[in-house]
């Protein structure tokens, strides 16, 4: 039995103001191609298909198209669980019909205990669940965290284990010892919900979703696939991809994905950044987090850089910014209105319009009123 | 071929502040029972399954349950189109899988031209569409209204008509000559979009959705089913139900539904309304639009009536309310703050709290500012 393990698609997610739709579609096409090229027996998506419980219509259309493409066009069995970003209820739409074409979608805890068998592998699809759901399911008032629920969950699954078969758990939670990055939303109770690895070692493989870095956990048989795309600056140096997993004999291989538009960090001086010899060597079209080494004030900095690098997502100063002591004194004496107007001029190279001045004045007035 | 024709479920709709979930569930159970009792070959739902494009999770769960119950549990073929209240894109989720169990769901204009055949009847399922969709589909820049699109649509359908079969159109629009009531949202272009009946007379039967009154149109073979529930006071005297339709030999019968909680109008004096001999004869639990015959000021009127009639949805004065000429003069002299405070006291029997007074003052201040 051979399958692809992916997760955390977060369809509908934006990177600052940018829609990631084209990049997500391109990553999906690569996943599909890999699945076909490696002749997998199934594709596993371990939760967070959507970025939010209430996805917009465009995201709904994209997910519908993707799931139909894998399962109905490419005729690949599809194993999906809901993650903490998905609305289990919305995602559940159509579920009972899907299994006729080997599309298994689990959105409720109770469904996790009926294994899906493909070739000689039993898949236990455990959707993201809140502790109260486990408390209710096991009628055990002592369950207050996901971690507390897991031993009981695994025990219940073990009762279904066929000795001559392999067992794979598909789940969406924070496994103890994993490293978080910036783009993941914390699961409810901070820290308390880390699932100990001991509970997971009963399986031949655990296909996890939730963390966006495939190296978040260093275990041969318990893995995060990570997201197919970089979703934050902290992921700039991560290699994104999917796991190719064989259950018998056991083997895993990480298959990289190539982003349609990359996300990169760029540390340099303003002079370098604006020199053709420098910028022609850069991936100028990438989503860029620029870290300026300059300390001087640079007029129109963003405007100038955007002409060369159209997708800047952040601009920071590696070494801070020079402010002369006399200037500090001057700044301290300025009224907030004047400070704001100076700052705007310095940053954008343009003075506030009369209308903008009015807005600023009324906002500051309101702020002062709230302070009282 | 025999089918039930229903429409305009508007799952998720509220009646003033009241959730209609229990009433909608009860109506659904009756529809299901009728379908089974009359051994229909299919159930037709002519649009507006949901009340809004973005239904809440409770509504999604309810609709999913209903559609599964009809098609998967009761194993009845199900023919559904999207209405102007539905999000075609959201409703479309799962569609390609549904037809395996004879659940045909059409959400796009292009799908209308592939008839669904059940026994010897061809069903053309035409979802609600915007004029631009028809303009694009027919590549005809002259189409600006639904009415203008219909002759072309019907003509395209006619090319599929099998002479030895019956043809049924399922659609969701305003048919010319129909009577509107209060609870229907107007379709885009006021008036211009009324579909002439001539376009519809090619069919053995036209199962319409959109208008909530089953008597909105008086045609033997072109009918609105109306909504299963009363959604506004203007529908208080309507008999709600579904159509039972036989295509060969052609026959229709209106099957009434009994509301779990009715919506009624009640015209009486305050004295009558509060007399046991009177109110014990009323359906006190109904959603009530009370029309008071009194003209005098009645202290605590709403509070008192609610103790007897817990689900009042409106309170009006049939004959207006007495105001003595001296009082009019007095009122004219009062500042808005004092007027509001007097009105509140008169209506609720309680004085404004200090906090409420503050709110009122600041709201009136803001209103005065906007007036300038």
UniProtKB/TrEMBL annotation, chains A, B:
Gene3D superfamilies to which the protein is assigned, alphabetical: 3.60.21.10
Coiled coil: none
Domain of life: Bacteria
GO biological process, one term: DNA recombination
Tagged with keyword Nuclease: yes
MF term (GO), any: endonuclease activity
Keyword Hydrolase included in the entry's annotation: yes
InterPro entries: Calcineurin-like_PHP, DNA_Repair-Maintenance_Comp, Metallo-depent_PP-like, Mre11_N, SbcD, SbcD_C
Pfam families in alphabetical order: Metallophos, SbcD_C
Keywords: DNA recombination, DNA replication, Endonuclease, Exonuclease, Hydrolase, Nuclease
Boundaries of every Calcineurin-like phosphoesterase domain copy: 1-213
Domain Nuclease SbcCD subunit D C-terminal: residue ranges: 259-347
Purpose: SbcCD cleaves DNA hairpin structures. These structures can inhibit DNA replication and are intermediates in certain DNA recombination reactions. The complex acts as a 3'->5' double strand exonuclease that can open hairpins. It also has a 5' single-strand endonuclease activity.
Subunit structure comment from the entry: Heterodimer of SbcC and SbcD.
Family the entry assigns: Belongs to the SbcD family.
NCBIfam families with a match to the protein in the record: sbcd
Identification of the protein by name: Nuclease SbcCD subunit D
Species per Swiss-Prot/TrEMBL record: Loigolactobacillus rennini DSM 20253
Organism ancestry: Bacteria, Bacillati, Bacillota, Bacilli, Lactobacillales
Gene that encodes the chain: sbcD
């Amino acid at each position: 039995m051979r399958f692809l393990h992916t997760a955390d698609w977060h369809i509908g997610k934006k990177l600052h103001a940018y829609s990631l739709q084209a990049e997500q579609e391109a990553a999906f096409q690569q996943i599909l191609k890999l699945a076909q090229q490696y002749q997998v027996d199934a594709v596993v998506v371990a939760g967070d298909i959507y970025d939010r419980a209430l996805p917009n219509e465009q995201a709904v259309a994209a997910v519908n198209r993707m799931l139909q493409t894998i399962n109905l066009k490419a005729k690949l069995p599809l194993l999906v669980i809901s993650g903490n970003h998905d609305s289990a209820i919305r995602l559940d739409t159509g579920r009972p019909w899907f299994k006729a074409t080997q599309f298994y979608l689990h959105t409720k805890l109770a469904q996790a205990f009926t294994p899906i068998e493909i070739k000689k592998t039993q898949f236990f699809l455990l959707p993201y669940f809140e502790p109260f759901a486990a408390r209710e399911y096991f009628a055990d008032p002592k369950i207050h965290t996901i971690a507390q629920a897991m031993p009981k969950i695994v025990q219940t699954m073990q009762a279904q284990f066929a000795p001559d078969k392999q067992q794979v758990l598909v789940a969406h939670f924070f496994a103890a010892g994993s490293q978080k990055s910036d783009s993941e939303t914390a699961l409810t109770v901070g820290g308390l919900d880390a699932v100990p690895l001991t509970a997971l070692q009963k399986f031949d493989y655990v296909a996890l979703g939730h963390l966006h870095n495939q190296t978040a956990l260093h275990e041969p048989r318990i893995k995060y696939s990570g997201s197919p795309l970089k979703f934050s600056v902290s992921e700039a140096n991560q290699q994104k991809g999917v796991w190719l997993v064989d259950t018998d004999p056991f083997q895993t291989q990480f298959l990289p994905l190539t982003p349609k538009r990359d996300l990169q960090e760029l540390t340099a001086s303003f002079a370098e950044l604006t020199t053709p010899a420098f910028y022609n060597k850069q991936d100028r079209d990438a989503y860029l987090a620029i870290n300026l080494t300059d300390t001087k004030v640079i007029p129109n900095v963003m405007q100038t850089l955007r002409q060369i690098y159209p997708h800047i997502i952040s601009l920071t100063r590696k070494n801070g910014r020079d402010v002369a002591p006399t200037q500090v004194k001057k700044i301290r004496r300025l009224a907030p209105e004047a400070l704001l107007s100076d700052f705007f001029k310095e940053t954008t190279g343009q003075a506030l319009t009369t209308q903008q001045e009015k807005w600023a004045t009324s906002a500051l007035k309101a702020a002062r009123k709230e302070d009282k």
